Amino acid sequence: MAAFLFMWGWFTMFMFVATLRINKALQVVFGTLMVLFFLLALGNFFQSSVLLTIAGYEGILCGFTAIYAAMAQVINEVSDETVLPIGEVDA
Fold first, then answer.
1. Is residue 31 part of a domain?
2. What is the total count of domains within the chain?
3. Which of 4, 10, 19, 48 is 20 to 30 Å from 40 at the Cα level?
4. What is d(CA 64, CA 14) in angstroms, rounded to the nearest whole number?
5. Residue 84 in domain
6. Cβ-count burial of 68 within 10 angstroms (0-12 exposed, 13-18 middle, 19+ buried)?
7. What is the residue range of 58's domain?
8. Is residue 86 a part of any domain in this protein?
């Protein structure tokens, strides 16, 4: 299980790097998701309930950031203005 989670952690890390040119909201989503996968992998590898509990809280944070990013992108698109900031990155 730990190897599987490490694989997803590495994939998410590369996705995080790709978001460095998009916006800050997606950077936070993929950054917290990457940390989540690595915490879950380490928690399973070491069979640490403490690490898995921290991963659980971090997963909740990741979920909230994903909800905000999704809502902001949709609301901003239909409003034709920035209602919820997502931290646009200058090209």
1. yes
2. 1
3. 19
4. 21
5. no
6. middle
7. 2-79
8. no
Classify residue 86 by its DSSP letter.
-
Residue 87 corresponds to which tokens in the numbers above? Answer: 């931290």
The CA-atom distances, in angstroms, between 19 and each of 28, 44, 55 are 9, 28, 22
In the chain, the amino acid numbered 26 is L
CA distance 82 to 74: 10
For 52-84, the pLDDT digits (tens) are 999 999 999 999 999 999 999 999 999 999 999
What residue type is assigned to position 67 of the chain? I
For residues 86 and 23, the answer to whether their CB atoms sit within 8 Å is: yes
pLDDT in tens, 4-57: 999 999 999 999 999 999 999 999 999 999 999 999 999 999 999 999 999 999
pLDDT given for residue 91 in this prediction: 65
